[in-house]
# Entry
Amino acid sequence: MTRADQITFDGVSKKFGENVVLDDLSFGVAAGERVTLIGPSGSGKTTILRMLMTLTEPDSGTITVDGDNLFQEMRNGTLVPAREQHLRSVRRKITMVFQQYNLFPNMRVLRNVTEAPVHVLGLSQDEAEARARELLEMVGLADKIDAHPAHLSGGQQQRVAIARALAIRPEVLLLDEVTSALDPELAAEVLDVLRDVAKSTSVTMLCVTHAMKFARDISDRVLMFNEGRIIESAPPAELFDAPQHERTQRFLRSLREES
Amino acid sequence: MSGGLWLRLLDGLLVTLQLTGYGAVLGLLFAFAAGLARLSRHRVVRGIAFAYTEGFRGLPALVVLFWLVFALPGLGFQLNPLFAGVLALSLNIGAYGAEVVRGAVLSVPAGQIEAATALNFTRWQRMRRVVLPQAVVAMVPPFGNLLIELLKATALVSLVYLQDLTFQGQIVRAATGNTAMTFFGLLVGYGVIALILTILMRLVERRAAASLGRAVRPGLLSGRTS
# Structure
């Protein structure tokens, strides 16, 4: 962890019942860095993203973004649990794309992308639409602007979800197994879009994925998780080609056998 | 049967439709207020809504009606009879409707709220822009049922001398002495109104489903949404 880190986890622990999901975890991510989180399911990767999105609270430890403590705020000189107002201010820079897309079925594609810019950022309808059209063009869905999400394929829905996330101009983009619900061909479309995003923006990316080729292409660093801890951290070329830890070797082998 | 008696029935029909219409609007208001209040973060608000829904679901609408019409005046509150009828019916139907509202809101997947949170919507925006528009679609079919229940319950007001269809039916029966024909006429009258309400709700249901990009096959006897 360095002072320059945009995101820091410091001694973060989380249990669900008896199950220890994160075990005294500390790490940092620099602004603009692309970090991929890998590891067996249940090793705490998704929980990390959900904590950054303020959807899950840690039992102990602190998480900061740009120096702001996510779940606590200063009031009258003491740290107290954060209220909604504080959460909203730290959420401003962060957004997340979900495994199950979670597009709003009550809005057509264009409105899915303009809703937050208009009602959260306060953009005018025209500005928001112009930006949404650009983004939908970028994800290859300019012709689906008036479609209902229910009428799109999974891959198309996920690309809309990416456009929707980028529309609020996030500084941190969290990608939670965004291709796990898709068959390989549709997953490839989505990953291509994300490669574009990685190339054309400077957004910080935290990415939980099993798509190793993709992780290798976009990541600056790969973190290997096991039982709520980071057991190995290295640039992708190193971690994938010469994993040090026996658990990492076993995990990567099982992934290769799968594909 | 003389023209005067026919006119009586027509007047009665009008009162029944008024009771159903006003009762539905006010009942919807109670349903949303109490249903959303039961999901409030504040215990007191939840408690009040709980007391209302459980209380009025347990009370016969007729007892409430007797209270409003016969007991309240003794305490110094004289309500307009039609309003008393509408209030009694809507308090009752609103308590059932509150459960519909609550259930429909809870049926919206958590992922929807999480996505709205990830876009930094406020609590109210999440409810108003994401949750309610989807929940309302799920409310329409059970609300259709409640509307028919409400229509049938309006017949109770004849017992407090409000001159609805059932009350006028009794007058006609007394005047003509033809019990079977009169009650058969009432049966058809309520049946036709119920059928019209069912068709209307069916149209609303189709529009609601279309708002989520789903299609309902046309026709009264069609099955589930596709």
In short: The first helix of chain B runs from residue 3 to 37. The CA atoms of residues 97 and 188 of chain B lie 27 Å apart.
